[in-house]
Amino acid sequence: MTVPPLVLRVLGDGPFAETGLPSLAVVDDRSRRVAVARDVGALQWSGCGTAQSCWTGHRIGVYDRDALRCEHLVRSRYPVRSLAFHPALPLLAVGTGRYDGGYSFEGELLLLHLDSGTVVSVLRHEREVLGVAWLTERELRLVLAPCDDWENPDAHEQGHTVAVSRHDWSAVRSRAIEAEELAAPAGPATRRDHRARTRRFLADLASAAGRRWSPRRQVWAVESGEGGRVLAALDGVLAESWLPSGERDWVVEDEEGGRQLVLSSDGTSVWTNAERRPRRRDGRRERGAPWIARVAVDTGEVLETLDLDRSGTLVAGGSRVLVRPTDRVHGRSGRPAVFDLDAREEGPEVGAFDLVNHAFPVRRASSPYVLVGTRPDAPHEDKWIVAVGADGTARPLVPHSWEPREHHFGGPAAEIGRSLVYAGAVHDGVGLQPGGAYVVRRSLDGAARWQHRMDHPATALDVDEDTVYVACNSGALTALDADDGTVRWHTGLEIDGTPTTALSLAVTPHGHLLIGTVDGRILECSVRQ
């Protein structure tokens, strides 16, 4: 029987792992605590974006300064701009916020209660809080961005400095600070970048504790290799390999990092593709050359690379690996076609791709599957699940949405028996609704055998002979009975009591579950008794 996962080992762990690449840190000598802020990143890349809905990657971690143990890890809706420990109370003030890109400066003032981990947002109306500092036990100085930049070209360099007083800050309730208390003239306010200083500070703290700080980021793919190896692709790393001993054997670094791993049929090599985001250089928007590589599993040697003119997502099925284009090349006409890595030739046309509608990575697939729209003028609509045959033909199987009146987005999938299990979300004009995410099992004749509804979109999915494992961006991990979709267990993913979120999953040949997390760690878990 399946049981909630028991973490057997953690790869890529280390001090401050929960906060990855930090942006700000402060220390409290009185309580011997350190507060660290960072953004663990978005849950989308050019080949997949469904899991981004309802996601925030902004984190505040509070650590014991001596043991470097994480005491609290909380989410923030907005980037963290400032942190300050109260001089006497077990309380941390957190200023957050950002410009919305078109008009307003949004944000919150959070109070994190260090005894309980409770977080309270105390401003009546949202404001970006650029700075927080305790003047006394009763007075908190705030530097607030202007409400907006309407008819104010200097708003991005200005701030309003005020002092707010309370007799007991630990008793302040949600939304208790009114706008009238924040009225003050605008003056110059510098937005400082603390990232470099913060990383040096954390490295020094780790060194003083006899440890080494080596930040890691999102693990986009995990796979089980021969002999108990664990393979991973993550931000800044095209591919890496870990030995059963827990030692990292080799690593292929990359400017941005790998997003997928597809093992060869004999297990001796793995295909991986690097992300290439558009960047502005000399006033122009440019994208680096696509990089798809085949890497030797035992040595990490890059055996070959493909010189393609466009970025793509790997589509695996049986012993075949295809590349589906994910961007358009200026001046190129016709419908995009997949590229067959084995035959080194173009396959069937599959239409345009977008990262929300057409993402459909199918694990354990007997043949390559893609989502294809039936309308060339609107390829995101009326999508069908299409199998690419050995002869290179595209064979439509079933409509992606089994509900004719609903538009469904793509998501992770797996093949089991003569059916597909896949996750997705139902489009709604005002955003994802409760129960709007799902996992469904579809027979290849189109029948929906069962469906499981969720409030948060899936980040990853895999199956074994009788269980479907699905991870959500809420941090939840769920096991479903593959036959009828009933919940076998449901849990929040944690490492040493601290919550985390799975970004990738793989069931190993030995029945263990590999989990790649948003904070750069890899878990090997037992899920069977």
Explained architecture:
The protein is an all-beta fold and 529 residues long. It is 3% helix and 49% strand. It is built from one helix and 45 strands. A hairpin with a 5-residue loop joins strand 8 (98-99) and strand 9.
The end-to-end distance, rounded to whole angstroms, is 6 Å
Computed over alpha carbons, the radius of gyration is 24 Å
In CATH, what is the homologous superfamily of the largest domain?
YVTN repeat-like/Quinoprotein amine dehydrogenase
Quickly count the helices: 1
Shape: globular
Overview in brief:
The chain is an all-beta fold and 529 residues long.
Relevant terms:
2 domains; 1 helix; 6-stranded mixed beta sheet; 529 residues; mainly beta; single chain; Methylamine Dehydrogenase, Chain H
Fold topology:
Elements: E1 2-11, E2 22-28, E3 33-39, E4 58-64, E5 70-76, E6 80-85, E7 91-96, E8 98-99, E9 105-106, E10 109-113, E11 119-121, E12 129-134, E13 139-144, E14 158-165, E15 186-188, H1 195-208, E16 219-224, E17 230-242, E18 248-263, E19 269-274, E20 278-281, E21 284-287, E22 291-296, E23 302-306, E24 312-317, E25 320-325, E26 337-340, E27 345-349, E28 362-363, E29 369-373, E30 383-388, E31 394-399, E32 408-409, E33 413-416, E34 419-426, E35 437-443, E36 448-454, E37 458-463, E38 467-472, E39 476-481, E40 487-492, E41 494-495, E42 498-499, E43 502-507, E44 512-517, E45 522-528
Parallel strand pairs: 28-33
Antiparallel strand pairs: 1-45, 2-3, 3-4, 4-5, 6-7, 7-10, 8-9, 10-11, 12-13, 13-14, 14-15, 16-17, 17-18, 18-19, 19-22, 20-21, 22-23, 24-25, 25-26, 26-27, 29-30, 30-31, 32-34, 33-34, 34-35, 35-36, 37-38, 38-39, 39-40, 41-42, 43-44, 44-45
